[in-house]
Amino acid sequence: MNVFLVQPAEVSEKNPHEVETLLQRDDAFVWVDIPEWDDEAERLLVSTFGCHPLVITSCKERNFVPTVHSYEAHTFVILHVPLAGEAGHVHSLELDQIISGRYLITVHGPRNPAVPLEESTAETRGVLNRMEQGRFRPRSPYELSYAIGSAIARRQSRTVRMVANRLPQLEQQVLGSDFRRPEDLLEQLFLLRHELLIARTMAAQAHDMYVRIDSLERFIAEADRPFARDLSVQFDRVRSVADGESQFLFGVIDLYQTRVTTKMTVAMERLAVIAAITLPVTALASVYGMNVIVNTRTHVVQLVAVLAVMLVISGLLLRWTKKQGWW
């Protein structure tokens, strides 16, 4: 757990035991960052900040849907960040925020052991570095939360751009494919679609959350609501860009599936032609191969007549399939 005292001129790290004293200061606000949940964090949120039991439960457990809840003392927000993993898997990194006029608490939700802690805390560390270097001086917890939310929007946007950068290469593979192993290319396309849809869903849900926050006139001061409005616009922009890339990707997938289906249809037609041509030959051969027809010698005239019938029927079938455009 990391505790920071954010002042107009500087940000300094403090001992977690000083939180209650720091909250009494009028010239600064407190930022508590909890990279990993533990008993000490739970005691602090319950005894010092008086968080609702539902908030404690949400911070301890993994949440798959963004949420916003407002209480008299603070507002609780859950957001998610996408992280591409192995074999097309996309991790959902959770960030919980408890925002008040006197403090900001950021809780990094339970994470997959395969995800490094540095990835889970990238947004908060980035904002902290800007503050330590003097490039960002938040005047309120809502402004600090705004900076973290903007970092999340940028990361979602970066995920969409990464997908967009891989699309042209896959499009070229689709246009130049020989269709010998269509399942490999289709799998790449659908995994890319999966990654894009996750980023799009996270952005759309975050947009809805901040639209809701902007409407909470009873709990959030008018001076702080513009931050929520701007974040809603940022996440909506990410959603819009993801929608555009989705349209392009879906078009590429439809093109490839259509070409694969067409090639299979042509192949089936040709197989049908072969089967139709050989059917009368097989039928006549079967009749003459029956045990009920026993010949002690070869009847040349009869053999020629049967072969002629086979050729005529096969020729007529070839002519008919040609008229149908099957070959």
From TrEMBL:
What membrane topology term does the record carry? Multi-pass membrane protein
Q: Extract the coiled-coil ranges from the record.
A: none
- Matching PANTHER family: CORA FAMILY METAL ION TRANSPORTER (EUROFUNG)
UniProt organism field: Microlunatus panaciterrae
Q: Where are the transmembrane segments?
A: 271-294, 300-318
Q: Which UniProt keywords apply?
A: Cell membrane, Membrane, Transmembrane, Transmembrane helix, Transport
**Main location (coarse class):** membrane
What InterPro entries does the annotation carry? CorA_cytoplasmic_dom (IPR045861), CorA_TM1_TM2 (IPR045863), MgTranspt_CorA/ZnTranspt_ZntB (IPR002523)
Q: Which domain of life does this protein belong to? A: Bacteria
Family, as annotated: Belongs to the CorA metal ion transporter (MIT) (TC 1.A.35) family.
The protein's location, in the record's own words, is: Cell membrane
Q: Is rRNA processing included in the keywords of this UniProt record?
A: no
Q: What is this protein called?
A: Mg2+ and Co2+ transporter CorA
